[in-house]
Amino acid sequence: FLCLSVLAVLCVNSACVEGGDSLLLLVRLLCSLLFAMLRVEITENRMGLTEAVCVTGASGFIGSWVVRLLLERGYAVHATVQNLENWKETKHLEAMEGAKERLKLFQMDLLDYESIEAAINGCAGVFHLAMPNTIEAVQDPQKQLMDPGIKGTLNVLEAALKFQVKRVVLTSSVSAFGPNPKWPAETPLDESSWTDLEYCKKNGIWYPVAKTLAEKAAWDFSKERGLDIVAINPGTALGIILPPDFNASLAMIVRLVDGNKEGEESMWQ
Asked: Where does the NAD-dependent epimerase/dehydratase domain lie (predicted)?
C-alpha cells in the first residue's frame, strides 16, 4: 500500500501548481487509487447497482470527491455526515449528478455503533474516511482524536464484518509512518515504518498518534477476524474543493499566506 500512498501524496501535493484541468485530473487520480483498492466483485449496472457502497466522512474534501466519482460510475452510495441538518455537509452532495436516484445520506457518529450499522447495512464495500482533523491546538486528545479515531474505526470494521462487506478501504495518513526521527535516513519507508508514538506524545503531536493506532488496530482486526482491508496513506490534500469550507490542509496554507501561525504548532514544523 505504501507505493500507492506515495503516488497519492505526490498527486495532491502537485495539484497546487497546476492549472484547473490538471487539478481535476489529479484529484480524480487520488480517488481512482481508492477505487482500485476496493476491487470488490460488484455487478456494475450503469442504471443503478443492486449493492451499494458506503462512504464515511462523505462531506469532507476527499470524501466528497469519492461520492461524486462513485455516482458518476453508476454506483449507489450510502454517504455519512455528522449532522443531516447542516447544509454545509449535505447540500453539495445532494446537488451531485445521480444523487437524487442513487445517494442516501446517513447521520453517523463514530462512537454510536447503531448509527454505523444503519449506514453500512446493504453495502458491498466501505470507504472509511471519517476522522476528526483540526489545525487548532488539541485540548483533549482522547476525546477529540483517540476515541473517534481508534474506537470509531473498530466500530466501522465490526459493522462491515457483520454485514459481510467484501472489502474496506481505510483512509489512513502519512502521519501513520511519520514523524519517526529514529528511522535511518538512508532506509526507505515501508510497512514496518510506523510513527514514533512516544516522540509524538512527548511533543504533544496527537493526530499522528491517533492515525497510527487506528491503522494498527485495523490491521489487527483484519488478521484476527478475517475482514479484507486495504489502506491508503495520503498527505496534504489539495485541489478543487467540493464542500463549502476549506479542509485542514487548505486552511493551513491560507493561514500561512496570512502570516498566521496560530493553532497546532506541529503543522508549521
From this structure: 53-241
